[in-house]
Specification:
Shape: globular
Order of helices and strands: HHEEHHEEHHHH
Helix content: 40-55%
Distance between the termini: 23 Å
Structural class: mainly alpha
Number of domains: 1
Length: 217
């Protein structure tokens, strides 16, 4: 992607994230109050993800799960720890709204491959690593093509396709197709285990039978 195209995309992200943060501020406040009232602090969930050029950054989301119990593995199925408010936030994708701040800060884009955990890096092929040639996004081609119903390899292939075919028109099409999917709560499978979608060897590489992928890849 040329510097000019990167500049245009960045300006679009700034305008889109800035205006969205202002317009959606009442909803952001309502979500924060609901999480605080039902789950306590912290309201925001922070986790290291991999961004453009494989640079780590801290993603922001509304917290949707309670802390694990003393005898419960951190990466056990999140279906056991997700709260009722958290389930609603995930189903409506409202838990993703704090990522607008990631976009404003320049760590993410409105549209792009979803940012994944650092542990995934070791299993990517050279072609799949190209997903990191652009900033990760709040939504992307994999999200409008099936979201969590897709296998990991299918999602990564769509990520690379996005990198190879990017245009402002494509971004607009993805954003417009995302809105009705979010409204219909389509493609969200709370508590999905890595074994359900792993066809690239993530689980074997980590050597952790209970590893669970993030809810949004």
């Amino acid at each position: 992607m040329t510097r000019r195209r990167l500049f245009i995309k960045r300006v679009t992200d700034l305008v889109g994230s800035g205006s969205s943060l202002v317009i959606l501020s009442p909803i952001l406040a309502g979500c924060a109050i609901a999480v605080r009232a039902t789950s306590g602090s912290p309201v925001i969930f922070r986790q290291i993800r991999i961004g453009r050029n494989e640079k780590p950054f801290e993603i922001l989301k509304f917290r949707t799960m309670r802390a694990p119990l003393p005898a419960q593995a951190m990466y056990d199925s999140d279906a056991e720890r997700v709260t009722s408010v958290g389930r609603f936030l995930r189903a409506t994708s409202l838990d993703e709204l704090p990522e607008l701040w990631n976009v404003w800060r320049g760590e993410m884009s409105l549209v792009g491959p979803r940012p994944l955990l650092p542990e995934y890096l070791s299993v990517y092929t050279d072609v799949q690593r190209r997903r990191h040639d652009v900033k990760p996004g709040i939504t992307g081609m994999a999200q409008i093509a099936g979201r969590q119903s897709l296998t990991l390899s299918q999602r990564l292939a769509l990520d690379v396709q996005y990198v190879e075919t990017w245009s402002l028109v494509l971004d607009l099409r993805i954003l417009l197709r995302t809105l009705p999917l979010v409204w219909r709560r389509q493609g969200v499978l709370t508590g999905q285990a890595i074994a359900d979608v792993d066809d690239i060897g993530v689980q074997a590489t980590l050597g952790a039978d209970t590893f669970v992928p993030p809810n949004d890849p």
